[in-house]
Amino acid sequence: MHDLLIDSPTNWERWGSSDEIGALNFLNSDEVLRGLQTVKKGKVFCLGTKIGDPRGEPKSTTRSHSTRLNVRDKGTYGSGKVQSGFGGFESADDLMTISLQGTTHVDALGHPWYDDMLWNGYDARTTIGALEKCSVEPIAEHGIVGHAVLLDLARWKKTRSLSRNYVITLDDLLECASSQSTSVLEHDILVLRTGWLGLFYKDPKLWFGYDSYDEPGLTYDPDLIKWFHEMEIPMLASDTVANEKMFHPSTGILLPLHASLVRNLGILFNELIWLDELGADCESDGQWEFLYIASPLKIVGATASPINPIGMK
Amino acid sequence: MHDLLIDSPTNWERWGSSDEIGALNFLNSDEVLRGLQTVKKGKVFCLGTKIGDPRGEPKSTTRSHSTRLNVRDKGTYGSGKVQSGFGGFESADDLMTISLQGTTHVDALGHPWYDDMLWNGYDARTTIGALEKCSVEPIAEHGIVGHAVLLDLARWKKTRSLSRNYVITLDDLLECASSQSTSVLEHDILVLRTGWLGLFYKDPKLWFGYDSYDEPGLTYDPDLIKWFHEMEIPMLASDTVANEKMFHPSTGILLPLHASLVRNLGILFNELIWLDELGADCESDGQWEFLYIASPLKIVGATASPINPIGMK
Amino acid sequence: MHDLLIDSPTNWERWGSSDEIGALNFLNSDEVLRGLQTVKKGKVFCLGTKIGDPRGEPKSTTRSHSTRLNVRDKGTYGSGKVQSGFGGFESADDLMTISLQGTTHVDALGHPWYDDMLWNGYDARTTIGALEKCSVEPIAEHGIVGHAVLLDLARWKKTRSLSRNYVITLDDLLECASSQSTSVLEHDILVLRTGWLGLFYKDPKLWFGYDSYDEPGLTYDPDLIKWFHEMEIPMLASDTVANEKMFHPSTGILLPLHASLVRNLGILFNELIWLDELGADCESDGQWEFLYIASPLKIVGATASPINPIGMK
Amino acid sequence: MHDLLIDSPTNWERWGSSDEIGALNFLNSDEVLRGLQTVKKGKVFCLGTKIGDPRGEPKSTTRSHSTRLNVRDKGTYGSGKVQSGFGGFESADDLMTISLQGTTHVDALGHPWYDDMLWNGYDARTTIGALEKCSVEPIAEHGIVGHAVLLDLARWKKTRSLSRNYVITLDDLLECASSQSTSVLEHDILVLRTGWLGLFYKDPKLWFGYDSYDEPGLTYDPDLIKWFHEMEIPMLASDTVANEKMFHPSTGILLPLHASLVRNLGILFNELIWLDELGADCESDGQWEFLYIASPLKIVGATASPINPIGMK
């Protein structure tokens, strides 16, 4: 990775040595207002996956399934173990265990690293026990609001889903945009629909019925990185687990976009976003730009937060 | 409660017998667009409290504190227990246990009940094990986006916080609005700042150093309920635990607004919202209306979801 | 089940209407002393399975894998997030989430039921929220200490493991005992080794590579129940998930021994006990009797407790 | 600590460089048989505290209270969310979150350290993420069975509990033994009753109603350490949180017995053992020796395991 990315651009120090939110800095008030101008109909799309879904949760198999359990409900009152409040008030309570990287989520910039340094040069040892730097908390203090563009690669390719072996190229992005008569502008949140997430809900074996997991996605390519850098993309979102191929095809290196885009350029990753209804709507009205809003939870020291992003048109 | 609320209005069946989101139905596309018109500067306020805060979490003491723990971090690699990915990629992962009613959250309509019936007449036994009806999931599928108005009661009363014994009246709401030269309009999300939440962070003993917990708040009053009903308020938010006095002063009944507003009228409750910076901004520019956006997680069967609401101006 | 067991014996009321430990009452001081007499060499066998085993945990797939996570360790100190105690003291802490029925465990008598009644006739609604009656707590207050006999069915059949289709009969038990030149005595804890648990550790597919899970085991048979009843067996232990075939072969009824032995006769079930080293030792010295000791945790309201049973010879 | 213990004895390497169980090695088969000889009546005392106790759990306030929740019970069936098995079988399931150092437990030898080294010289970095060395697992593979002696200091002092300021000396141990007409023998498990644990259940304020927590206990003293070393004590148990004063009175050093006894001599610590009924029994029959049996769970990488120790007489 060190050699592969030795000439790859970085944004370290661009926003000062104490910055922890990276390319999210691009999303200032002007960008909020630019995003708002895309909203014409007042339609709201909620783009998160279900948590605690009995069909399973689409995620890396090394991460545990969410567990939500009732602490108190009508059964507790009915069995006499808890008394109603004075006047007859009763209520249900619950708690949940959740893998913070498990369902639709935004990664903190301190989630990935190589060469012992995180985004902006922070020491990787600051991750020990809890993320002391670049946790999801400063992202959640800022909020993620901006102008987004959907590139619906599956629709462009006229397929239910790109295949697990498919490598998405920069040309694909540009041609897909062109086919949609749209274009990616500076500071746009880039949202890619591959259709992959739908396969999981059809049958998890379509994801996991192989010796090793892979998925359709972008991968490291110097021109692609240059494009992300010059376009000052604040965030990449897609309907896949990793937002990229698991391995760089020519070198076998693991997750080089997490390294070059997140760790080096400070670009936020929103993984496992659900885009099927939004994609259909964009096709029907021909408007592929929308206001993107995500509001991660302010979890102290966290590597990620589950989100239910909103797409507004 | 049954007797107290016998003539109190309800919205049951107003949106059909299978409705599970109640007054959230008021927040249609027109209301989204009305909310958007308040945004002038592109400022974003993130109104959630911190989760896993070492200072403690402001919540009912019967609910457990969130626990977030690392599953993998630089320490795990450094000790040789996990190997870097091919090329040197490393990453941190974590999971969390959280009381869903614990920090800033929105209640599902199935959270409170009396007389064995939830919102819209659903049987309270549907809460057993998990909320089969009126969980937070349909709310999270809809999203909460609308025109909100902040009534800053603490600022109006020129106090750091209303006292724990203070009962907020309908007249207080109207006079506070008048003092702000604003007014509450139909379908407005009503956001009340009491200053109470700030006391917790100053010193938890200011909340819990009494024999029983109480807080400043609204309470049951037929005129108040009538006003909420006629104004078609979709949601009430405040910087307190319960959005109301714990007990109705004259009868001692527990949480009668949860009964009359949530269970009978289907109004959403957002509790423990953090409003100090937003309040200061509204005072400085004299604009107390804003776009409110909350996007609860789609947790199957849940009584609530943690949220980090966005206020946009 | 009701019809199948209509003439099946019960011990309800045998130890009074408030009893919650059933056949554990057989294990009085005399039985403790009888068990002690089997100890000749002072050898101790610890018969629990590993918890949080990276190889997986042998258990029903509907139960979640244990998760143990560090709260504090050398990494936390090394990163400066926690300071050493005065003088330099440091320590590691952790916590765990565990399915109480997940690994080697003893069932509470309130775990299984039919016809809306638990052991001793308690109402099944007493299980709601927590076991109000017949939880594992009174068992843990009593302790489980007695004279046990191992019947090593796999060794008798000269096989690594009985096959998943194998139905163990009463005759099998008696013939196996005879082949070992031992006999089952009144009040003996009956411990059966099938070899099945070893298959899981060899390859979980040997357990789960079928359309539905099954395992070798006893199943309902009137003569078998009569024998358990007359022998006043206090506990049945085996190296399988359920201590019985999943389904009664001739009727298809689910888990009829849980019904007839646990719920009706009050016999304790210790499932997933690890017997390979104990079995080898018994073969080598020809002594199949041993002192069995298990000390479940006093978990209030629990359906089971993980245990690491001791076999002493 | 380094200076304080510079001449303090250690058992490192005594059982080889790969040993992870320390003084537990003293408890061989002969010691098991010696312990068994104390059993005359067949009486069994279960010495664990309750887990998930609504009265609270006696433990350091930095550790979280256990949470046990039902996954399935009669309510789940009654509400139609789960169907009975074929034939009518139903059952209850639950899971638990527990701080492994929280209630009655045995510490792993890797729990405490100073000077960056654990028991036997292992690097403290082996604790990162999980205890790679000296976890509770090898202790649980061995089992803890031996001859124990109870010194009932509270009874000797004719007090409900020693006071929180009380420092127990070696002379106290010897005089208390003498007053009981008993003596501590080589390889005895040393069990101390201070009465302190009973105060918690009377009122937690008797423990926590002070600016900082302290408790009656032993503390570092060269003669005491020498005595433990020469007596080859395998384990120390007491009815307190730490088995020692929080701070060494003359130097203020934190937990020097964890350092000198656990880390240097490899002696096991069983904390928070419940001794009130056992103490009363010993007084009534004048026999203070008993068979001690504890069987920690085989939790991979754990710093401790909850136990319900058995005292048998």
What distance lies between the first and last C-alpha atoms of chain A, to the nearest angstrom? 40 Å
* Poorly predicted tracts of residues of chain A: none
Mean pLDDT of chain A equals 96
Give the amount of beta strand of chain A, in percent: 15-25%
The chain pair with the largest interface is: A-B, 102 and 102 residues
Q: How many H/I helical runs of chain A?
A: 10
Describe the structure.
The structure is a homotetramer of 313-residue chains. Chain A is of the alpha/beta class and 313 residues long. Chain A contains 10 helices and 13 strands. In chain A, the strands form 2 sheets. The first copy, chain A, has a 9-stranded mixed sheet, with helices on both faces. The mean pLDDT of chain A is 96.
Structural key phrases:
313 residues; alpha/beta; nine-stranded mixed β-sheet; two-stranded antiparallel sheet
Give a brief description.
4 copies of one chain form a homotetramer. Helix content of chain A is 24%, strand content 18%. With 313 residues, chain A is α/β, with parallel strands linked by helices.
Topology of helices and strands:
The structure is a homotetramer of 313-residue chains.
Chain A: H1 29-36, E1 44-46, E2 67-72, H2 74-78, E3 90-91, E4 93-99, E5 105-107, E6 112-113, H3 136-142, E7 144-152, H4 153-156, H5 170-179, E8 189-193, H6 196-202, H7 205-208, H8 222-231, E9 235-238, H9 256-264, E10 268-271, H10 276-285, E11 289-294, E12 304-306, E13 310-312
Parallel strand pairs in A: 7-8, 8-9, 9-10
Antiparallel strand pairs in A: 1-13, 2-4, 5-10, 5-12, 7-11, 11-13
